[in-house]
């Protein structure tokens, strides 16, 4: 069931990203804390952390992209060296394939360090727990992307 949830979530997300260009992705409405590009980068980074703990074998939270997309960051952290929106969409495709092809194996593993969300009392000691949370987290940010896209189109 979890594979189908990932598949459907990625499919819907990609559908909504399809017609967004770099200028729309980087536009930040005055009432928003971030933009579509940040939402997508954050979603990709956190999915790697929640599902694998690593990116290309290295600690996901110590990667260069964390300074752009980790909790507490915003588009104000963008300095021109962050991935483009098109690059993020390619990373999303690669990530889906990696998750879909390795999910069953990951669900059986324990994390090297538990994830503790202090403000909500959630503790994730296994990948089974953090992978289920990844779906919730992904769909939350997917909703933010849809909302920002709608706001941008109304402002045009």
Mean pLDDT across residues: 90
Order of helices and strands: HHHEEHHEEH
Our count of helices gives 6
Can you give the helix content as a percent range? 55-70%
DSSP, total strands: 4
What distance separates the N and C termini? Answer: 40 Å
| Gyration radius over CA | 15 Å
User: Are there runs of 5+ residues with pLDDT below 50, and where?
Assistant: none
- Strands of the widest sheet, in order across it, are 1-2
Structural class: mainly alpha
Main sheet specs: 2 strands, antiparallel
Approximate shape:
globular
Strand content: 5-15%
In short:
This protein is mainly alpha-helical and 156 residues long. It contains six helices and four strands; from the N terminus they run H-H-H-E-E-H-H-E-E-H. The chain has a two-stranded antiparallel ribbon with strand order 1-2. A two-stranded antiparallel sheet has the order 3-4.
């Amino acid at each position: 069931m979890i594979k189908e949830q990932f598949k459907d979530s990625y499919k819907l997300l990609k559908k909504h990203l399809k017609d967004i260009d770099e200028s729309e992705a980087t536009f930040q409405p005055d009432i928003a804390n971030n933009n579509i590009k940040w939402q997508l980068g954050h979603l990709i980074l956190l999915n790697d952390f929640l599902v694998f703990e690593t990116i290309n074998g290295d600690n996901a939270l110590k990667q260069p992209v964390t300074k752009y997309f980790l909790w507490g960051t915003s588009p104000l952290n963008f300095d021109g060296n962050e991935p483009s929106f098109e690059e993020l969409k390619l990373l999303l495709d690669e990530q889906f394939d990696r998750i879909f092809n390795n999910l069953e194996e990951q669900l059986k593993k324990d994390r090297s360090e538990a994830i503790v969300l202090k403000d909500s009392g959630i503790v994730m000691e296994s990948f089974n727990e953090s992978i289920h949370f990844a779906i919730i987290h992904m769909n939350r940010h997917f909703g933010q992307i849809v909302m920002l896209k709608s706001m941008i189109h109304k402002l045009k």
